[in-house]
Design a protein that fits this description.
243 residues, mainly alpha, Arc Repressor Mutant, subunit A, Four Helix Bundle (Hemerythrin (Met), subunit A), 3-stranded antiparallel β-sheet, 10 helices, 64% helix, globular
Amino acid sequence: MTSRPVQITRMAEAPATARRKPAAPDLGRANRSTLQERIYHKLTNAIMSGLFVPGQRITIRGLAETLGTSPIPVREAIRRLTSERALEVLRNGSITVPKMTWEKFEDLRRSRILIEGFATELAAGNLTPSDIAKLEDECRRIDTAKLSGRRRDTLLYSKRFRFIIYEATRSATLLPIIESLWLQVGPLFNLVVDDPAVAALNQNQRRAVDAFKHGDGKSARAWIERDIMEAGDRIIAALDHEK
């Protein structure tokens, strides 16, 4: 199975004097206000959504050119993401998205089922009708994006669906833990975004939404846990294929 980085539409053209090298996905230009935090959050969202692929090498200069900023705030974002195990620095000094072993992925999957399952059940009591309507909208967007082959949108909508749920936990403890897990597993979603079996798994999310409508947190939890397990099976198959 072939994976590839997902290109992101540019938000603005660079000045004529700036010469870009196609070294990284186009993440859009960062606003000068709170620049360091904005760059960090752009990169975090891109990694969690699967817009980078395992083993992909990136450069500080390439990201800085793509974002339209100096290397200094990018370097700080890279430092933070390295400490969070979302990126790693190799012995030769190059920066890469970590590759995943079967054993490490199984550990992540077990942790996700426990933590995200609990978060789903906890969120059930807090989701408003507006939140549930947003979840239904995301399910429709995921299906439409998959049918039309829009890989980038499929990845972004899938991540957005889950975090509508997890943010509804209103837990300052759970959310950072879940984000840390997604920073490590996110690039693997790129390996299976084109897998027809994964496309069918959106039904698990739809059934979770139906459970939320009835205030059934336990059932919603079961469907999200099932989704993590079944998508994980496809990721393991992709990892085996890439050996």
